[in-house]
Every structure is written in C-alpha cells, then in structure tokens.
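Box 4.2: Ligand-aware structure prediction
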Amino acid sequence: MVFSFNNEDYKVLIERKISTKNIYLRVKEDLNIYVTCNTFTSDKEIINLIKNNEKRIIKMIERRKKAKEKEESFYYLGKKYDLVYLNRPGIVFGEEKVFVNFDFNLDKWYLKMANDIFKEEFDKMYKAFIYDIPYPSLTIRKMKTRWGVCNTRAHRVTLNLELIKKDPIYLDYVIVHELSHLIHPNHSKDFWQCVEDNFPDYKKIRKELKKDE
Ligand SMILES: [Zn+2]
C-alpha cells in the first residue's frame, strides 16, 4: 500500500497484532507510514483510516522531514552543506545544499568516495615523500579516536574515513605522519623532523586537527 501526495510516494506498512485493540497510525523517521492494528482489521478499514486522516498524515510527514533537515549538516572535503531529504534516489549536489534520499547511506557513500580520493592522495604523498620506503598497503575505516594508524609490522597505513569531511590538506598531513612512522615508529625528534621534511607546514595543520578532535 502506498500513500501519495505532492508527487511523492510513502510506503504504508501494516502490522497486525492479536493484542492490539485499536488502530494506530504513525510516521516514523524513515518516513514510512506505520499502521498497527488487530489481526482482524480489514484492508478496507485501513484504507478508510488513511483517507480520513490524510491531513494528519501529511502534517506528520512534514514534521518528520523538518526535524531531519534541522538535525543534519553534511560535510565533504572541507565544505559544509545543508542536507535536504527528498523522496527520490541518489545524491545531487547544489551550491550549498546536498539532496539525498531518506534512506541514503551516507557512510557507505563516504567510503566509496574515500576509496578513490584517499588512494589518489596517498599515492601523491607517497611519490613526493623524500625518503625511500616500500609502498605500504592502505586501509580506510571510521575510527573514534585517531586520524590515522600505522602498523609497521604489517607495513600498513589506516586512514580515518572521517577525514573525507575535511579539507584534503589534513588528509595529506595524516598520510605524511603515518608514512613517517614507517621510518620512525615513535614520536621522537627524528620522527617530527621527518614529518617536517615532507610537510613543512605541519605544525599549524596538526594543531587545527587536534582542536576538533
Ligand atoms: Zn603518530
């Protein structure tokens, strides 16, 4: 069953329970319409209920939409956008707004973008790195407390997916930081010298990155 208004369709999901005496109508965060009713409630009764409550349902949908728009901003490569939910598939970029579907999986999309962008930056910084190191493997994932991790034994660099939200200059610094760990596994003076040799402006960038951790 589908409820349509303003050229948009909203799914009506029906849950029948023996223990439910009345009919309940709700619009949840996913913008689907949920009807909870008794096992013996007929489809016709439900259709009538929806017809009779059209205005109320539209109000509930609009309230849900507004709440969603308010709560979320969208950050991508250092730029902040307002996130606007539409009932159509995919993602569309405007000047200051990004339009996505209600059930759009942001993290999945971020990861898809990061797989290309991080790899490209990683290769760029690796090529520019003035010390000779074997090419490490690269992993990208969401982390809570660190921007990057270097596993010297596995010769692997892990970058925090959250870096996709920031200006790529921070990504470049984190890459240089982790590549430098392949030479100096600690945070010794030599380590910071190595970072500086490859990223002269690192102090400023490091400070800014720490500030919003
Ligand atoms: Zn470190």
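In the box above, the bound molecule is zinc ion. The two ends are 46 Å apart (CA to CA).
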